Amino acid sequence: MKNGLKEIGFAAFLLLLAVLLVLSLFWALSIGTVKLPLEEIYAAVLDQFTSGRPIEATGQGPVHDIVWLLRLPRLVLAALVGAGLASCGVIMQAIVKNPLADPYILGISSGASLGATSAILLGVGAALGPNFVGIAAFIGAFVISLAVLFISNLGGRSNSMKLLLAGMALSAVCGAFSSFIVYFANNKEGMQTIAYWMMGSLAGAQWGELAVIAPIIMASILFFWTQSRVLNLMLLGDESAITMGTDLHAYRQWYLLISSLIVGFAVYSAGMIGFVGLIVPHVIRMFTGPDHKRLLPVAALVGAIFLVVADGLCRVIIPHTELPIGILISMIGAPSFIYLMIKKTYGFGGSD
After folding, report:
1. What is the pLDDT of residues 55-82, one digit of tens each?
2. Tens digit of pLDDT for each residue in 148-179?
3. In this predicted model, what pLDDT tens digit does every residue of 228-277 receive, in sequence order?
4. For residue 352, how far is the Cα from the chain centroid?
5. Most distant pair of Cα atoms in the chain: their distance
6. What number of other Cβ atoms are within 10 A of residue 335's Cβ?
7. Is pLDDT above 50 for 349?
């Protein structure tokens, strides 16, 4: 009975977060260079759902075009990327048993960026089809994720410092090769695209792109949610897991593969947006505890809300100018990372 009440309370909490996500979407739709009343936004959304007309159909009015063609695609992308990166942060922290793990800090986002840079400027993987840039970003992310784990385990078991140093070193290597490619490619249009990625932006979101990204990210998060038992075992360590009949090695490889898929497509669609996978899981863990059955869905919803609100703020902080979202997130995330690293290393503010 007590457990049943807890589950009902947790389900109600998830529902509340879902409502907050919808409210944050409507708030972000209303702000920008052109401010829109909420009743007009609601009418435009309802009309599109009931009219049966294609979203791109002409003559539907300026409010429809602002909502459906400009703002809503980028906000849906923000929610997907925020949920995906927060979930990846949870998974990577479980894999390496370190609360400082994150796709950005561990260099995995840099690997995805190198893969995408090679695809755009050198045409690497063009034979893989129209989404070859996303595939190249995924391959780059996966290779770097494996390299980080390999290097951090050289000469003994991985620890926090070795993990961070390996991630920073590989991130620098990826950055150097990306700069080398950009320097010699002599492609102005490609260089502008790469510069846009480095700062992170959601402005280029398209419904066709979202139709590919949304199923991948949502299915991956649902898959991870079904793996909560194994993720909890990872926190206990390999020896404890083996005594309970579970070998974690194969699971780590699969989880890294799927996490790299999310990171690769997130970088492909929104550029380098760091620290979401660090900040959100760490904050949420203080409220839900380490149980991944609760931690993962809450982190995904909060990550979505966080990035939607951040995207809205990027459009209003500087009048008539859009601040790249990667810059804003880094301004929040970098000091948070420094604080968490000091706390983890020296025990300031309590223990984890």
Report:
1. 887 777 889 889 999 999 999 999 999 9
2. 888 888 887 676 678 778 888 999 999 899 98
3. 999 999 888 777 777 777 778 788 888 988 998 898 888 888 888 888 99
4. 24
5. 67
6. 11
7. no
